[in-house]
Each structure stands twice: as structure tokens, then as C-alpha cells.
Amino acid sequence: MKIKSILFALALSIGLFATSCNPSEANEGDTLAPIVGKWGIVKVGTNVNGVETLSDPPQNTIGCDHDFINLKVGNTMTSGDYSSTVSPCALTTTSGTYSRGDSKVTIVLNGVTTTYDIVNLTLTELKLRNGNAISVYIR
């Protein structure tokens, strides 16, 4: 009787383990990726009636690194803007703060607070939406 109980418990454990390990397609979009890091903006666009339109960001100066946000441990951040108006690829930075909820990130720069929905967060991509506006960043 003890052996049957042990076998039953073992079979139940294996069954529970097997059902908790879904294929990666079933977990598409689920991630434990950290948001902390330097993210360069690579696409901007809109989502209107479920149709997403993305293009190269006009704020990125041709020939310079991508403009970026650097989200740091301790909820501080730096926003970087490369411009060639005064000198080639001159970097202007602005310091601020951020906070992250389950599916949102709130950024405070120059006293302006903006909350974004986190559409996608992986180890290499961060996609944010504010209303219909979309921004895609990469590490």
C-alpha cells in the first residue's frame, strides 16, 4: 500500500511538473527580463484601430548613435539626445526618475510625468505605448 501511495505521489508530481512547463509559444510575451539598462530608440509610430505603423525615429540624427533612455538601479534615469546642431553628434542628457508596475512604466523628466504601457519587454527589446504612440527601444 505504501508503494502505491509513493508511486501515486510521484506520478502526480511528474504530471504537475509536465503541465507547468508549456512550450515557449504558449508563453509568448511573458518574460522576467529586467527593465534596467540603456535602451536606444530604433522605431516610433502609432497603433490606430489595431494597425501598427512604425518608422525610423526622426529624433535620431543621421550618423550619430541612437537617442536613448538609461534606466538605472534605484529608479533614476538619464535621457540622451544626440544632435549635430552645434557640433557633430553632441550629446545632451537629462536626468529624471522612473517607476515600474506590472505592465506600466512611469517616467518623470523635467517635471513632466508620463506613463507608458509596456507592450513588450525582452532581454533585447522594450516596446512602450502612450495612447496611440509607440516607441521601440533595443539594448
TrEMBL record:
InterPro entries with a match to the protein in the record: Lipocalin-like
Keywords: Signal
Domain Lipocalin-like: from-to ranges: 35-128
UniProt protein name: Lipocalin-like domain-containing protein
Record organism: Flavobacterium fluvii
Signal peptide span: 1-26
Highest taxon listed in the record's lineage: Bacteria
Membrane spanning stretches: none
Zinc keyword on record: no
